[in-house]
Amino acid sequence: MKLVKALLVVMAVTVVLGGLVWQFWLKRQVAFAEVSTAYGAKMVCSCLHIAERELESCKKDFTADVSAVTFTDDGHVTRASVLGGLVKSEARFDPALGCTLATS
Questions:
Q1: How many CB atoms lie within 10 A of CB 73?
Q2: What CA–CA distance (Å, rounded) separates 53 from 31?
Q3: Which of 41, 61, 71, 73 lies at a CB distance of 3.0 to 4.6 Å from 91, suitable for a disulfide?
Q4: Count of beta carbons in the 10 Å neighbourhood of residue 95
Q5: What is the DSSP letter of 24?
Q6: Across the strands, what pairs with 79?
Q7: Rounded distance, CA 26 to CA 21, Å?
Q8: Phi, psi of 71, rounded to the nearest 5 degrees
């Protein structure tokens, strides 16, 4: 019975600590990743399709480190993702409109 109580206390403490980590650290990191991928997808799309530059040249335009962001381009769709694709955004190129973020 003491073991069960000890396990329940450990689980409760773990849940509380996990909630605190989410609230004060991870939530901001995920929000930053969402903004970064959206901004990155749109900027790289414009760089590739409007300025007609190479991907490596486009990456040099960012003032922040974007080494964690993966950029891919499939014709007229540019994707940016982080954390193995857990957070991702895409921008589509239309000759009449330019590059716009695609909504999911």
A1: 18
A2: 29
A3: 41
A4: 8
A5: I
A6: 72, 90
A7: 6
A8: -110, 135
